[in-house]
Amino acid sequence: MSTRLAQGGRLIDRQKPLRFTFNGLPMEGYEGDTMAAALLANDRMLVGRSFKYHRPRGIVASGAEEPNALVGLGEGARFEPNQRVTTTELFDGASAISQNHWPSLDFDIGAINARLARFLPAGFYYKMFIHPRPFWKHVYEPFIRQSAGLGRAPKDRDPDRYEQAYGFCDVAVVGGGVAGLAAALAAGRAGKRVWLMEQAAHWGGRAVVDGVTVDGAAAEDWVAAALAELGGMANVRVKARTMAAGLYDHGYLLAYERIADHTPGDGRPRHRLWRIRAGQVIAATGAIERPLAFAGNDVPGVMLASAVRDYAVNWAVSPGDRTVIVTNNDDAYRTALALADAGLVVPAVVDARACVTGALPQAVRDRGIRVLEGRGIAKVKGGKRVTGVAICAQAGEGSVLEEIGCDAVAMSGGWSPVVHLWSHCGGKLAWDEAGAMFRPDPARPPTGADGAAMVVAAGAANGHLQAADCLADAHAAGGGTGAAPTAVTEAEAPLEPVWIMPQGAGPALRAKMWLDYQNDVKVSDVQLAAREGYESVEHTKRYTTLGMATDQGKLSNINGLAVLSEALHQPIPATGTTTFRPPYTPISLAAIAGEAKGELFQPLRRTPMHDWHEAHGAYWEPVGHWRRPYCYQRSGEGIEDAVRREVRNTRNGLGLLDASTLGKIVVKGPDAGRFLDMLYTNMMSTLPVGKCRYGLMCNEQGFLSDDGVVARLSDDTWLCHTTSGGADRIHGWMEDWLQCEWWDWKVYTANLTEQFAQVAVVGPKARAVLEKLGGDIDLSAAALPFMHWAEGTLGGISARVFRISFSGELSYEIAVPAGQGRAFWEQLIAAGEDFGVMPYGTEALHIMRAEKGFIMIGDETDGTVIPQDLGLDWAISKKKADFLGKRGMERTHMTDPNRWKLVGLETPDGSVIPDGAYVPATGVNANGQKNTQGRVTSTYHSPTLDRGIAMALVLNGPDRMGEVLDIPGIDGKVYRAKIVSPVFYDPEGEKQNV
Amino acid sequence: MLILTCPCCGVAAEETELQPGGEAHLKRFGPGSSDDAFEAYMFARANPKGVHFERWRHAYGCGKWFLAARCTATLEVFGTYSAQTKEPPAEIVTKIRAKRPDWAGWSA
Q1: What is the CATH number of domain A291-413?
Q2: Closest residue of chain B to A750, computed from CA coordinates
Q3: Following CA atoms A693, A694, A697, A698 in sequence, which dihedral angle do they give, to the nearest 10 degrees?
Q4: For residue A53, what pLDDT is reported?
Q5: Cβ distance A3 to A318 under 8 Å?
Q6: Average pLDDT, whole number, for chain A?
Q7: pTM value?
């Protein structure tokens, strides 16, 4: 039984008991506990089930490397699956439920998989679920989805707040052990701007647990003094509960601060994601102990030796009365001493090394504890918890020499430096034969913008596992001058690499040796992968799922690749490691989103009339970052009805459109005309002052990119209108050519889109309403003909009036200063009352332009359409020697007479062809797909003509007038359509020219 | 997440402030050029592992285009310079040569 010891526990406050529940059972812990410590203190050994075989699983580790003890934390909207109890600080009222079992943790039907294990080897899914093919969709996938996954996703909206913040420093020290503290002290004393962060809530790392003496004081006291000194430095920022998740280019460090995980609902943001720019990163991230691969090493009660020590020293938790220790190194003997100090029994230390003579083993022997040399564990006895171990010779095949009864097993296979931050940005590793570990290769560090190393590994993360070396290394890494802190510890003899225990174990034992606990990958699986030809460690990882669990192989990777190397008969460095990718431990998606959700997800652009639209029934449509009214719904009116009403009213009376989103770019300067002649396909330099001209812009490939009306304002000034979505892009396009190609041309551009509100006043009554507003502009047909502009005042507001039309009606587009847009709009609404004015939205705009056969960028164009395809040859200058896109249009494919070209489509029965429908042709293409000869680009019900109209790109369309096409819709119907002119309404232009 | 210093406004700008613009120092081929020359201008782009010259725009800053010389493998930045030039400045070429002795050098 695991239990709470009567004394000790450096992190817990026995005066502050906390209540919590596990699977509904009430339990008690203390302030300072992790949930793992509290569960063990309540004898909760079995905490979950493994992913594949549903094997019983207990707590293995004491920190972020824990692969087993994942639970669902919290309730209701604060429920969160897959949380590690080893990194969860206990708080009063906490609740957790176990995962991956049915119907209960203790009795799990899925555990049948364990009995079927020999039929579920590595690559099982790949081998099994291939044939017959239809079974994948209907049988295999639903079954796998049902049984896969760990915790359940929460159902309610997350009630907590998450935020992001920026940090800047010269040195970011990651890790709050003695190495991190020493490095931070050195850098801080040198006056550098320092960030020091520790993922846990407490400081000191291993040294405080292992009783190291630093500078003559207990590590605990040295740590407290170091923190006090750092806290007094204005240039140093110290952050606990902050995990450096990933290091990216040029010193960009992401750190994840868990502010309120342990104080839920206290109003503070739950998590904060720090986006830090660090001049240098010191990775003092420590090392992680490796498990040993022996049969039954996954039974609850088998734990890492360092974790057993942590639980005893930090939280006064006994893993059981009798703990057998199994090791290949001296460090694990500290666990024996810690347990003995706590009054617990260590029946034996099982050491794989043949001869053990070091100081630590001697200290253990002096306590009367048996040390078994050259021995290993043949098998762990027990199911849901350990009941004993069978001892064998490490050199043998597993013949049992004796059995020892015990409640727990503390194992140590040596230590692996945490090299993640070093590796994220390209730092390379070197294999250290003596330490049997990969450590950062100082000759091949990750480099920054200046080509110099941007990460320094320090302490245990750099392979210096002994406290004295560790402190000296960290002091140097921090740029320390003078003497480094000194440490006194017992000398340790070298470890002996042990990758399989016993080394000659047969298949039966190897199939019970777990490498990856969460994903159920065993020694036998990796060896099978090697036999099946998997030589690359990256391939083996994906084939066996080794290291793919939520712990990302923190415990399993090195053991796994050592087993693979042996199976491949090659040295470990030849096998190499898999890629270390951020984040180091999982971070919440909410922290990645930060405040960017809801209204703050992206900025909303509002025209000056936005609020008026909102108040008058606008049904919004997103257009870029703008919102534009699609139509204005009246009460009891459907969307389609509203659109039809708006079209008819505009055609027959008076309509108003908020056209403020239209791009408005001023191009000015001595070379402005020359510049616009390069930008547009037609000639703009010859446009007289006072006139407007429709223009097309193409990219260098000749494909149509944007269109709009250009007005010449003065001798050296043009105003270019662009599409609503294209304003920023086209302004950028202009600047690109001016800055990078024709930088000697004297041209200035300014994007004035938001400086002006623009209103289209459209319909037979348009002139009448503007004359009613009153002003000094002669709006008569003679004074202001079609495609001219004038300026003056209208209704007391200074205005520029463009007589242009995108609807085919008499139409004026009027630009006024943005600040007066709303007032001007309301004047028009009031003055228009007598004329039956109605605002209209973007859908009415689209329909009216389609009735006139006007193209819309993005509907009739898709980045592969040249102006000639749309019958716009008239807008392409034949006189100009050059313009952007001219050479592109001369390519053979563009000049091919057989191209898809713009036509109108008319359905004999008046039906509306589905949007995007394709026109099939005979035969099939190389991929076995039906050939096509065209597609529908715009299709609407025309309220004016009361029937469906469509525009389409059809092979040689203009030469095929009158031909009838069959167009299948995805609704299963076939639509018959006759090829006609795309201009359906007022082809002579009589209405707009009045 | 690169940091490039805009030579126009002097700001050390993070990648989120910048808009990439592809290979620098392209020579435009317009009407009258051969199909091969136009194809090369339009589509053929160098994609070296190592020293590369690129166009960047300080889009969420001063709005100016500039050019950068950097290593695509290590992301080392050798320098940034004005876009109003047809070839990399001599001092940047010298600096690259010193740091990358194997570099084949810049050619138009």
Answers
A1: 3.50.50.60
A2: B63
A3: -120
A4: 81
A5: yes
A6: 95
A7: 0.91
Q: Is the pLDDT of residue A549 over 80?
A: yes
CATH number for A3-114: choose from 3.30.1330.10, 3.20.20.80, 3.10.20.440, 3.90.1170.40. 3.10.20.440
pLDDT at A144 over 70: no
Classify domain A897-988 by CATH number. 2.40.30.110
CATH number for the segment(s) A610-661+755-848: 3.30.1360.120
At which residue do the structure tokens 């797909």 appear?
A: A929
**Which of B1, B38, B42 minimises the CB distance to A250?**
B1
Tokens of A374: 């050259």
**Do B84 and A743 make contact, defined as CB atoms within 8 angstroms?**
yes
For residue B15, the enclosing domain spans 3-25+37-99
Asked whether the beta carbons of A704 and A755 are under 8 A apart, the reply is: no
3-state secondary structure of A582: coil
Residue A717, chain B, CB below 8 Å: the answer is no
Q: What is the ipTM of this complex?
A: 0.97
Best probe of the A interface among B67, B76, B80, B100, by most A CBs < 10 A, is: B76
SS3 string, A374-415, reads CEEEEEEEECCCEEEEEEEECCCCCCCCEEEECCEEEEECCE
Q: Which helix (H) or strand (E) holds B67?
A: strand B65-71
Give the DSSP H/E element, type plus range, for residue B53: strand B51-57
pLDDT at A147 over 80: no
Contact check, Cβ <8 Å, A426/B74? yes
Across the interface, which of A449, A881, A890 has its CB nearest the CB of B76? A449
- Structurally, how many domains does chain B consist of? 1
Handedness of CA A459, A445, A67, A494 (dihedral sign): negative
User: Mean per-residue pLDDT for A828-857?
Assistant: 97
Fold: same for A162-287+417-481 and A663-753: no
pLDDT greater than 90 at residue A137: no
Residue the block writes with tokens 């309403």: A769
Q: Which CATH architecture has domain A513-586?
A: Orthogonal Bundle (1.10)
How far, in Å, CA of B35 to CA of A140, rounded? 54
- Contact A893/B at CB under 8 A: no
Q: Which fold has domain A162-287+417-481?
A: FAD/NAD(P)-binding domain (3.50.50)
Residues of B in contact with A277 (CB under 8 A): 3, 14
Residue B12 belongs to some domain of the structure: yes
**Containing H/E element for A456?**
strand A455-457
| DSSP per-residue letters across A777-797 | ---STTTS-TTBEEEEEETTE
Give me the residues of A, 233-252, that contact B with CB < 8 A: 248-250, 252
Give me the residue spans of the domains in chain A.
3-114, 162-287+417-481, 291-413, 513-586, 610-661+755-848, 663-753, 897-988
